[in-house]
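Sample intake sheet
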Amino acid sequence: MHLQVGMDAPHFELADADMQMFKLESLLGKKNIVLYFYPKDDTPGCTMEANEFSEHEEDFAEFDTIVVGISRDDCISHAEFRDKYGLSVLLLADTESRVCKKYGVLYEKEEVDGHKMIAIQRSTFVIDKQGKLRHVLYGVHAHKHPDEVLNLIKEMK
């Protein structure tokens, strides 16, 4: 099931790279959230995307916005990924795919050898301070995507 603009963003609680719990609803009324789902830590596209989001940290902050990345990697993998590249984005571990399912970002991918596996479709959700989905972007490309998202945030009233 795909989410639609105008819906309430599904609530969730996940651990970050430092094993601290992050609750989406704790930011209601305070911050806009760019929630992006990516396939895997330390792979070329995901690294580019995380680096580009991190480079824009201050630009997003100017618009009361924090950037949160989610993948199915565990907290330790996230910590290594963050430290290796000096990432400023908050990385959350969805090892059981619970949040991926709520946001409808999983799909079946055929491997080179013909086996099928479940993977994350690179997707981004812009959530306003009221907890509403303002932008729903499934199947995005990593390169320059953070620039596009920043422009969407700037246009929000």
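Comment: Helices lie at 44-55, 57-62, 75-85, 98-102, 145-155. The beta strands are 13-16, 21-23, 32-37, 65-71, 90-93, 106-110, 116-120, 123-127, 133-138.
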